[in-house]
Design brief:
This protein is mostly helical and 466 residues long. It has two domains: 152 residues, Vanadium-containing Chloroperoxidase, domain 2; 219 residues, Vanadium-containing Chloroperoxidase, domain 2 (Orthogonal Bundle). Helix 9 packs across helix 14. The longest helix is centred in the C-terminal third of the chain and has 29 residues.
Length: 466
């Protein structure tokens, strides 16, 4: 004990430890082809594990008591020496091994390889064996406590709950064809999708996910990590989950959509006409913007992963230390997770029809949007809301700063430079109009909802450096 007490302190944690995890999450989400809400939940718990591990020994920095249902977390034994990186790595490993238990073998291997390599690099700096063992043991306790907290959020109950969509001319109907779900680019990072497999069922609402991404088949009976079914209804009960920070799913109120009508000149018809006319006159830049922010589930890291990728790039661009990087990681992911809960609560409560369905019925039967329509109701816009939530948190933590985003370089999109996080979020929202998948009201009110959620997260979790 005396020798351990006199041992030199370990060097500060490299912030690239946080950035590397953030970058790798994008790939894991894409490979597993999960829906955006499921991705947000997984990253929410993973980010808490990483943050709490790095904050070990600093009770004032812990999120225990500030997140719904997380009343307490294990604290280190008095006088024990722990290495924050090893604690964080062990906590995350426990959480991710459980949340990705249904993952494909490549995912599990990638998690193990990344964790092992980071631990090896840290140990090489001279971490004593006793500190290693104590750190791993405490990280495992942290991870187990976070998993116990996660098990009470209502997710398990949604896995088998039946859903029957409301029926009527004004309500959402997933009328997209299965053959619309093809990658926008073909590269080593995306799949070739074919539909000539005679064993594939392409019935609306029941298409086999094996026919949609043939190179990474997943069993149909998965519950936690089932693949996105683009011809079904994505997570209709997601709005019933326990939020992380919000007091309730409807704490940030959303104004109702404009009254339903098919009459030319009515506010609703004008919303659809705006989408229709925009789609007919898209410039090359507008079309590229729609593709850049498409972030389709099953093909990319989803909108959640896109903003997480931005966050990982900011670690170097803004020269963040590890504590600040972890704070950015956890607050952005929790804001996005709560945004999906709040937005999905409204989407399935209101079940607003998508522009493609309305326009084909009442304006132009042959009209086609620039990007594929997602398999859930229109109002409010999920991408607009979660982008605004992420941008609000980032602005609070880092200020109004210019940055470059190279997230989609691997699928053919040149890096984009933005003057602020708000500018990027505004472009993400506008991309949904360019893409023909959201009404203007869905985008604008989605952004307002996201800003409210981001403000609640910052207000309750704090923006000052610890």
């Amino acid at each position: 004990m005396a020798i351990a007490a006199c041992a030199p302190a370990a060097p500060p944690v490299d912030p690239q430890f946080v950035a590397e995890w953030m970058r790798n999450y994008y790939g894991l989400i894409r490979v597993e082809r999960v829906s955006p809400p499921v991705a947000a939940r997984v990253l929410g718990y993973a980010s808490v594990a990483l943050y709490e591990g790095l904050a070990v020994g600093d009770a004032g920095a812990s999120l225990a008591g500030r997140l719904n249902g997380l009343d307490s977390l294990p604290r280190p034994d008095a006088g024990s020496r722990l290495d924050p990186l090893l604690v964080a790595s062990a906590a995350q490993r426990v959480v991710l091994d459980s949340l990705f238990a249904e993952g494909i073998p490549a995912t599990r291997a990638a998690l193990a390889t990344l964790s092992d390599s980071m631990e090896a690099a840290r140990i090489a700096l001279g971490i004593p064996a006793a500190v290693q063992a104590a750190s791993r043991a405490h990280g495992a306790r942290l991870g187990a406590a976070i998993l116990a907290w996660a098990s009470r959020d209502g997710f398990a109950e949604t896995r088998t709950k039946p859903f029957t969509p409301v029926v009527g001319p004004r309500y959402w109907l997933n009328d997209s064809r299965a053959d619309e779900y093809t990658p926008q680019n073909l590269s080593a990072a995306s799949d070739f999708v074919a539909f000539d497999n005679p064993a594939a069922s392409l019935r609306a609402g029941a298409a086999s996910e094996r026919s949609l991404a043939v190179t990474r088949p997943k069993p149909a009976d998965l519950k936690a990590l089932k693949a996105l079914n683009p011809t079904g209804a994505t997570e209709p009960w997601w709005g019933s989950l326990r939020p992380f920070v919000l007091l309730s799913a409807d704490e940030c109120p959303t104004p109702p959509p404009v009254p339903w009508s098919t009459a030319p000149g009515s506010p609703f018809h004008n919303e659809a006409r705006r989408v229709y006319e925009t789609g007919r006159s898209l410039t090359k830049e507008q079309y590229q913007t729609a593709l850049y922010w498409a972030d389709n589930g099953g093909q990319t890291g989803t909108p959640v992963g896109h903003w997480l990728s931005i966050g990982s790039q900011l670690v170097s661009q803004q020269r963040l230390d590890a504590a600040r990087a972890a704070q950015v990681f956890v607050q952005v992911t929790l804001a996005q997770a709560d945004a999906f809960i709040a937005i999905w609560h409204e989407k399935y409560r209101l079940s607003v029809i998508r522009p493609s369905t309305y326009i084909r019925r009442h304006i132009d039967a042959k009209w086609t949007p620039a990007i594929v329509t997602p398999p859930f109701p229109e109002y409010p816009s999920g991408h607009s809301g979660q982008s605004a939530a992420a941008a609000t948190v980032l602005t609070s933590l880092l200020g109004t700063v210019a940055f470059e985003d190279s997230t989609n370089l691997a699928i053919g999109h040149a890096p984009r430079r933005f003057a602020s996080f708000t500018e990027a979020a505004d472009e993400a929202a506008m991309s949904r109009l360019y893409g023909g998948i959201h009404f203007p009201m869905g985008n604008e009110n989605g952004k307002a909802l996201g800003r409210c959620i981001g403000e609640k997260v910052v207000e309750r979790l704090g923006s000052a450096r610890r």
